[in-house]
Prior knowledge:
With about 180 residues, this protein is of the alpha+beta class. Helix content is about 25%, strand content about 25%. The chain has five helices and five strands. It has helices at about 1-20, 65-70, 80-95, 95-100, 105-110; strands at about 60, 120-135, 140-150, 155-165, 175-179. A five-stranded mixed β-sheet has the order 1-2-3-4-5, covered by helices on one side. The N and C termini lie far apart (about 65 Å). Residues about 10-50 have low confidence and may be disordered.
Amino acid sequence: xxxxxxxxxxxxxxxxxxxxxxxxxxxxxxxxxxxxxxxxxxxxxxxxxxxxxxxxxxxxxxxxxxxxxxxxxxxxxxxxxxxxxxxxxxxxxxxxxxxxxxxxxxxxxxxxxxxxxxxxxxxxxxxxxxxxxxxxxxxxxxxxxxxxxxxxxxxxxxxxxxxxxxxxxxxxxxxxxxx
Length: 179
């Protein structure tokens, strides 16, 4: 009697667990193709939906309408676009000194080295948005969209980079992070 009761409970538990289990197939689950965290480089896993054109036709460059972006900034804030332009230009032209020049500290520039790589070619197309934050300090987040060719793997992926820019202690606009 004890054996049959235990067998019945085990079978019932198995049926309940099976019925309550995850019934979605792996293809039904959404995939996250860009995993980023503070001060890290976007996930470089390549998915076919991220590839936008043949790498043989990839033309690095900056095709952003900075005048349009400037219209959403105050006169005091507009110099932050110069810092952004220099950083983007450093990435596109593989100018390491230019890339590092806009960061608030050398230590931060070292931490952001993951974006700069001789194998990467960038094409920046637009500023998606500009968000202003007023707290203890005035900070502006600029979201830049584009593409990155990794010539070591011959793959192209869409990139979205958030630049956090604010005035440093000397009153100069500087990059505080790229995410």
